[in-house]
Design brief:
The protein contains 22 helices and 25 strands. With about 750 residues, it is an alpha+beta fold. The protein has four domains: about 110 residues, 2-Layer Sandwich (Phosphorylase Kinase, domain 1); about 220 residues, Aminoglycoside 3'-phosphotransferase, Chain: A, domain 2 (Alpha-Beta Complex); about 240 residues, Aspartate Aminotransferase, domain 2; about 100 residues, Aspartate Aminotransferase, domain 1 (Alpha-Beta Complex). Strand 1 and strand 2 form a beta hairpin. The longest helix is centred in the middle third of the chain and has 28 residues. About 0% of the residues have low confidence.
Length: about 750
């Protein structure tokens, strides 16, 4: 089979392509040519508002090669649905390709692919997190293709690094400097790599994770892999080498970017020693291939506009620093990552089925999320990864408010752990600074901070303060509220009450939108001998079905409680830290200042830390009379985590981002809900959103909601349920949730609601 590099791209007038698109696919619209080294690619803006990519394959790519790429994309989508690869659009007759003749008589296969939103990245601006993800995605792509094979995968293509030696036949095309840089790379390949190449792990690989084939969102996360045109059967490590070369040639920071990329790759697919030893030479060989092939193409094909300057610059850096300067960070990152499970993690990895049985044996029948439990091993940003490497969009966990494994938080905890871990009975800057920063951001009147370990403990301590301050023992909560797991807070959490259980000292308030006023609940409470010590309210009413904001309701409840001698506890454990997109605390939207404010879940982005903020006249007498102290409350590690979270919330403008992403998500969900009778009322506040699932009569349908949640899990998106009937889909992702994430969620929600 001829090498497609030896023949020019197809030459076909755009109007002929548009005619084929309309005649064969029934799609009409505007065509815009996209980048393509060997193929013709067009973005199609269809008349019906949809977008596609139309690809005219190189004439020398046989039908078998095109079939291989088609099957490979389908295989990747099936094995790892979280990888953003395109899908082939079939013709109305079910065909996956058509054919078109060029002006020179050559025949090309034509395919229409789904369009992936995003932008081609500037590799020079990728930060450490983005570089790490680039490596991880490259490894996941290789892992997804591990079980794939096709007879056409053995066709010869010069971009396969195994063919580096054949570049020597074209060295005469290079100028003096280019030849001086390229020839030693080929020599090293011949002496070091070629004799060992056949010993390397081999499979079908993508072989082209370069910026032209990758799309990223505004946060530099990969949201599209667009081209399988260089796919071939070769050494697996070539996939990593290509990715490294394509990123490193676009940067001016030496070889620093190699470390996070290799680390990300090795977290999914650890490198073998033989591969580690050859990576640097393979990267240099890829750069040399680019220089030679690009030079050759510019001499032979008028469409070839690329210049090899970036690759030449990279080879100059290799020449100046020596190949060892690249090999060393690669080896260090590979060793560091592969050793993590042994040197840092003391637990042993087990297969999911074995782990599930062991969990029941050791922990009993504690509830697991989803019908098919998740065996998670890693989180990053808004994504979670299971033991098989599958990615899930996390639209449920509000604990990692700054995103899973945020490097600022993780590094702060690690740095403090190497210095000092102690309690608040010693002077230390961290607890004082954290208290000062919280009070600076707190509602008016709150002047003291008590540190604890969880939201439950914060609400428990607030209950003790309220009872001491008022001398009363009654509480008011909304009808399906949740405030904690201690004995006291469980009594304040009707969501968790066993059947037939109702503490006599707890009065239930009708939530916003239902008949009844706070005065009615107070009268009922006092009629059985209990005056109110405190009113507890989550201003977003998350457990009641996500009903906030409700300033008029809250004003009535607070004024009635205070008139009866009680205080108001604002529970920000679920809705705090900017989730509503209005301010840091949800209660401020009501214009009412709480007497006590309780914080928890998101405060440490996963590290157990919580707090009670209160008026001095309430907190000081409590501390003096009880000698309050918590061994772990306010410990130096916890404070380091919480300070880092506040820094991230401010520097990354998470409150503003929650407002913007939440607004777009609401619009997308409204569009989806309008297409499905099962979707009832939609309620949202920033990045907290609820969707009622109802039956044909409009009544709550918890069974259908349960099926939707599990369907979403299978589709790679995690959500939950809430509300008295458990029929409200609960969506509350980390605040780094982006607009593109909202589109993924809406697409999967549409699919889940369509399933029966």
């Amino acid at each position: 089979m001829p090498d497609p590099l030896l023949a020019p791209r197809p030459e076909i007038a755009p109007e002929l392509v548009a005619a084929l698109l309309a005649d064969v696919y029934g799609i009409s619209g505007e065509l815009t040519e996209l980048h393509g080294e060997r193929d013709l690619n067009f973005r199609v803006d269809a008349a019906d508002g949809h977008r596609y990519v139309l690809k005219v394959h190189h004439p020398e790519d046989s039908g078998d090669v095109v079939e291989m790429r088609t099957l490979a994309m389908a295989h990747v989508r099936r094995v790892d649905p979280g990888l953003p690869v395109p899908d082939v659009v079939r013709t109305p007759t079910g065909a996956v390709r058509a054919a078109i003749a060029g002006g020179d008589g050559r025949i090309s296969d034509v395919q229409v692919l789904s369009f992936l939103d995003g932008a081609h990245p500037d590799t020079g601006t990728l930060d450490v997190s983005a570089l790490h993800e680039w490596g991880r995605v490259t490894a996941r792509l290789g892992r997804a293709l591990r079980g794939f094979f096709h007879p056409a995968a053995g066709y010869r293509i010069q971009w396969d690094i195994r063919h580096t030696s054949s570049l020597r036949d074209r060295l005469h095309l290079l100028d003096v400097e280019a030849r001086r840089l390229v020839e030693p790379v080929i020599d090293r390949f011949d002496t070091r790599v070629a004799p060992r190449f056949e010993f390397l792990r081999a499979q079908v690989v993508h072989n082209d994770m370069n910026p032209h084939n990758v799309l990223v969102d505004a946060g530099q996360r990969i949201v599209g892999i667009t081209d399988f045109g260089d796919m071939t059967h070769t050494a697996l490590v070539c996939d990593l080498a290509v990715a490294l070369a394509e990123v490193l040639v676009g940067r001016d920071d030496g070889f620093e970017a190699a470390s996070p990329m290799v680390a990300g790759y090795c977290e999914v697919t650890p490198l073998e020693d033989e591969e580690v030893a050859l990576v640097a030479d393979l990267v240099a060989a890829r750069a040399a291939t680019d220089v030679v092939v690009t030079t050759w193409r510019r001499l032979h094909h008028r469409h070839a506009e690329e210049l090899p300057d970036a690759s030449l610059g990279f080879l100059r850096r290799v020449e100046s620093a020596g190949i060892a300067a690249l090999a060393e960070p690669v080896a260090q990152a590979a060793r560091r990552t592969s050793g993590t499970s042994q040197s840092v993690l003391s637990y042993r990895s087990r297969p999911t089925s074995e782990l599930r049985v062991a969990r029941v044996r050791a922990l009993g029948h504690l509830e697991l999320s989803y019908e098919e439990p998740l065996h998670l091993v890693r989180g990053e940003g808004v994504h979670l990864f299971d033991s098989e490497g599958r990615r899930y969009l996390d639209a449920y966990n509000n604990v990692p408010v700054a995103g899973h494994s945020h490097p600022v938080v993780a590094d702060s905890i690690a740095a403090q752990s190497r210095l000092l871990v102690t309690n608040t009975r010693y002077l230390h800057e961290s607890s004082v600074e954290l208290a000062e920063q919280l009070l600076h951001r707190a509602p008016k009147g709150l002047k003291r901070v008590l540190f604890v370990n969880s939201g439950s403990e914060a609400n428990d301590v607030a209950w003790r303060i309220a009872r001491l301050a008022t001398g009363h023992d009654g509480a008011l909560v909304t009808r399906f509220a949740y405030h904690g797991v201690t004995e006291a807070t469980a009594d304040l959490s009707p969501e968790e009450w066993p059947a037939g259980f109702a503490p006599a000292n707890v009065g239930l308030l009708s939530p916003p939108g239902e008949p009844g006023r706070a005065g009615d609940a107070l009268s009922a409470l006092e009629s059985v001998g209990h005056r109110p010590a405190a009113l507890y309210v989550d201003p977003a009413f998350t457990s009641d079905g996500i009903l906030g904001p409700a300033p008029a309701w809250l004003a009535d409840a607070v004024s009635s409680t205070r008139a009866a001698g009680g205080i108001f506890v604002g529970d920000e454990v679920q809705a705090g830290y900017g989730r509503t997109g209005v301010s840091l605390w949800s209660v401020t939207a009501s214009g009412i200042d709480p007497d006590l404010l309780t914080l928890g879940k998101p405060m440490g982005n996963g590290f157990p830390v919580a707090a009670v903020l209160g008026r001095a006249d309430l907190v000081d007498p409590f501390v003096e009379s009880t000698g309050y102290f918590s061994t772990f409350g306010g410990n130096t590690l916890a404070c380091a985590a919480a300070l880092a979270v506040l820094r991230v919330v401010e520097e990354e403008r998470l409150v503003e981002r929650a407002a913007a992403s939440g607004t777009r998500l609401r619009r997308l969900v409204d569009e989806v809900s309008a297409r499905h009778d099962a979707a009832g009322a939609v309620r949202s506040w920033g990045l907290l959103l609820g969707i009622e699932i109802v039956d044909g009569d409009g009544a709550p349908d918890p069974d259908r909601a349960h099926r939707v949640v599990n369907a979403m899990r299978r589709l790679g998106v995690l959500i939950g349920t809430t509300g008295p009937s458990s029929n409200v889909l609960k969506i509350r992702p980390p605040l780094v949730f982006a607009e593109d994430d909202g589109e993924e969620l809406a697409t999967r929600l549409d699919e889940a609601l369509s399933a029966r």
